[in-house]
Amino acid sequence: MRKGMIFLLLILTAAAIFPEVVRTVEKVIPTFTKDDFVIAQVSFKAGDAIGAEDVKESILNLKKTDLFGLVEIETVKVDSGVDIRLNNDSLSRSCDYDTVEVRLITKEMLALLPSFGYSTSSPYYITLGAYFGNLWRIRHKIEFFFTFLQVQEFAMEYTIPSVYSRKYNGIFRGAINQKARGLLDIFEYHKTANLGVGYSFNPKFIPLFTIGYDRVNFKDDSVSFSYLDNDSIGYDEFAFFVVKLTTDHRDDPYFPTKGFYSETSFRKNINWWSTPINHSRFIGEYRLFMPFITGTFAFRNRFTLSSGKLAYYNNSEPENLENRAIPEKDIVAFNRYSGNLELRYPLPFKYTLEYPILGTISINFITTLFADWTLTDSLMSDMSLFDFESYKWGFGAGFLVYSELFNAVGIEVGYAPKNGTTDILENLKYNLLLLSWNF
Fold it and tell me: What is the secondary structure of 163-183 as a DSSP string?
């Protein structure tokens, strides 16, 4: 009898610790986003057996919608006469003794937000605008923005982001702009539009196929810009095609501590009706995140490769913060590789804020130590190998504030040793981060 009681107690304990079968999945806090859309981001449904990894994946799916500042999932054992809140980490697919209810707790960030961007490298610009990130209440985004200083642009962009429950994605963008290219000492005008669509068979692999048109005029129509084998007087126009693949295996879209993220794109510019243009550009960006003691090890590689017959104005300028130690003017080239090695240490305090206007957001504070390096090659006859004599490097440190609502605010200071210069202050580069790069 005593052994039987002990055995029964062990069974009941196992059933309480390892619940599995889902009875219902429900959203318990009202949101602007449609309930069906929120529930569709969960990777399981009623009747499924679940484990701890299913809950973690579903939380990540909800975060990737970029709608919520707070995401939690409660699992509650409901078939014992008393509702018992369970530890999600104890869930196991290997047991089907109990039934649980899954309750989604999500609190939105503001769907209608101002947008802001900037560049401290040439061309200098500031972008102001507004976007509504939850059109139709199912995470469509529409954005209008105006850029000024060395870039003057008005643009509209409509985006259907890919999410866990939605295999298709798309984008439409139209823009008119003027751009002063200080590093190249030219001034250009663009009228451009593009349309992109994609279909993903796996939510972690997101393709996008884009077709567009761009017409480029120059400030003085009498100026000739030389190609490798011919000249263009005053303007260029071309159709372009872009193939882009994004993969995302990070454990968190806002504060990744492990995983892999990549963006790989190939663009072809062509003009068969006027000036023969046949220009290609490959851009690959690959980021790896790994836990390191109490912080995170982040490794970023970015490749920009060009080939074909397009004018000098299409020279590939650096992305903002591509190299935080080397001046931008020293790494302008048609072909370029930049690497970044970074250690991030989160500070031991974090704030979760709830505001009637902003919604719910969390704020993290991080210190960084980094080393950046770049190789360049200005030949354009093919996507050539790099000139290792062009190797430039530097290192530095910074302090950043991250949130779901904005990418980064802070400062990073880089130092690049230079031959013949002993003045440390002269070799410093200051990088002001304002909502710019979520590396």
Answer: BTTB-EEEEEEEEEEEEEETT
Contact 251, 257 (CB under 8 A): yes
Question: Which of 397, 301, 416, 285 minimizes the C-alpha distance to 343?
Answer: 397
Confidence at residue 277, expressed as pLDDT on a 0 to 100 scale: 75
Q: Dihedrals φ, ψ of 25, to 5°?
A: -125, 120
The residue-averaged pLDDT of 75-81 equals 79
In the sheet that holds 21-27, the strands lie side by side as 21-27, 99-108, 68-77, 84-85
Cβ contacts of 319 within 8 Å, gap of 6 or more: 302
> Any residues with CB less than 8 A from the CB of 113 and at least 6 apart, and which?
130, 131, 133, 405
| Cα–Cα dist 238/194, whole Å | 12
pLDDT tens digits, 178-234? 888 776 677 788 899 999 999 999 999 999 999 999 988 776 544 444 444 444 456
What is the torsional sign of CA 119, 122, 128, 131?
negative
What is the DSSP annotation of 22-59?
Answer: EEEEEE-S--SS-HHHHHHTSS--TT-B--HHHHHHHH
| Reported pTM | 0.85
Under a CB-based contact definition with an 8 Å cutoff, are residues 62 and 41 in contact? yes
**Side-chain half-sphere CA neighbours of 421 within 13 A:** 11
Q: Count how many Cα atoms sit within 13 Å of the Cα of residue 114 in the half-sphere of its side chain.
A: 7
CA distance 337 to 316: 12
> Alpha-carbon distance 387 to 196, whole Å?
35
